[in-house]
């Protein structure tokens, strides 16, 4: 048997959804479910090796070819870009990018340059460039909702899933930017060198996606 295909999963919710998908295919994911603090886990009956990483690092490992494939959100793909193939939309991890402000803030009114806080400065820059609007962007690492509450920023560009975080903090979406979901990405060299194995895996994945 060939060496296992190595697939990097984004730790957390996407990891859980991907494990659900692998189990639906029929693979035994006991090692992942009982992983403890281990970061590299075998899925022997799928000839896979699962690597658990942070979203940005999933892209780094796939780009550098130390992982053949990865499961990562479209948000991270758009923010980081990079050289890899995006093979399929896995349909889970659905949420959206949105611009949100304090309720009734009138973000698009007035002439002052607005300040926008975000974990995603590239996406934010592109969004406002496309509108021809000059904004000041401040990078925040997490709980971006704090920035307008503390009056660091007029608005935020962030992920909205259920909308609960915004609601509980008196914020509202004033503009949807784009939908997000999990994607399967593949290293460009692996795609050439292990094409048959990757295509067979992708076929199984696509057959087992919840439509
Ligand atoms: C994300 C996002 C929002 C929240 C949205 O944060 O940045 O804060 O989830 O989810 P909701 O619409 O269902 O309330 P995450 O939980 O990843 O934490 P972080 O902000 O610390 O990165």
Description:
- The chain has 211 residues and is of the alpha/beta class.
- The chain is 34% helix and 31% strand.
- It contains nine helices and eleven strands.
- A six-stranded mixed β-sheet has the order 2-3-1-4-11-5, sandwiched between helices. A five-stranded mixed β-sheet has the order 8-7-9-6-10.
- Strand 7 (114-118), helix 5 and strand 8 (135-139) form a beta-alpha-beta unit.
- The longest helix is centred in the N-terminal third of the chain and has 13 residues, at 13-25.
- The chain is elongated and about 65 Å long.
- It starts with a strand and ends with a helix.
- The model has no long low-confidence stretch (mean pLDDT 96).
- The structure holds 1-O-pyrophosphono-5-O-phosphono-alpha-D-ribofuranose.
- 1-O-pyrophosphono-5-O-phosphono-alpha-D-ribofuranose (PRP) binds next to strand 9 and helix 7.
- 1-O-pyrophosphono-5-O-phosphono-alpha-D-ribofuranose is lined by residues 142-145, 158-165.
Element order: H for helix, E for strand: EHHEEHEHEEEHEHEHEEHH
Computed over alpha carbons, the radius of gyration is 19 Å
Q: What strand line-up does the widest sheet have? A: 2-3-1-4-11-5
Biggest sheet overview: 6 strands, mixed
The total of beta strands comes to 11
* Quaternary organisation of the protein chains: single chain
Secondary structure: helix percent:
25-40%
Q: Runs with pLDDT <50, length 5+? A: none
């Amino acid at each position: 048997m060939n060496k296992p295909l190595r697939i990097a999963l984004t730790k957390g919710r996407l990891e859980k959804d991907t494990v659900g998908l692998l189990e639906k295919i029929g693979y035994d994911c006991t090692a992942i479910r009982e992983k403890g603090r281990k970061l590299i886990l075998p899925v022997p009956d799928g000839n896979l090796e699962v690597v658990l990483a942070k979203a940005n690092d999933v892209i780094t490992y796939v780009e550098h070819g130390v992982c053949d494939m990865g499961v990562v959100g479209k948000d991270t793909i758009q923010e980081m870009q990079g050289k890899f193939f995006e093979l399929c939309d896995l349909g889970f991890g659905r949420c959206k990018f949105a611009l949100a402000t304090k309720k009734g803030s009138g973000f698009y009114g007035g002439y002052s340059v607005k300040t926008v806080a975000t974990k995603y400065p590239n996406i934010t820059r592109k969004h406002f460039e496309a509108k021809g609007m000059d904004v000041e962007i401040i990078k925040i690492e997490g709980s971006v909702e704090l920035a307008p509450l503390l009056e660091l920023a007029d608005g935020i560009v962030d992920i909205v899933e259920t909308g609960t975080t915004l609601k509980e903090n008196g914020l509202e979406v004033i503009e949807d930017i784009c939908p997000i979901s999990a994607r399967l990405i593949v290293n460009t060299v692996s795609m050439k060198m292990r094409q048959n194995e990757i295509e067979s895996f992708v076929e199984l994945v696509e057959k087992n996606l919840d439509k």
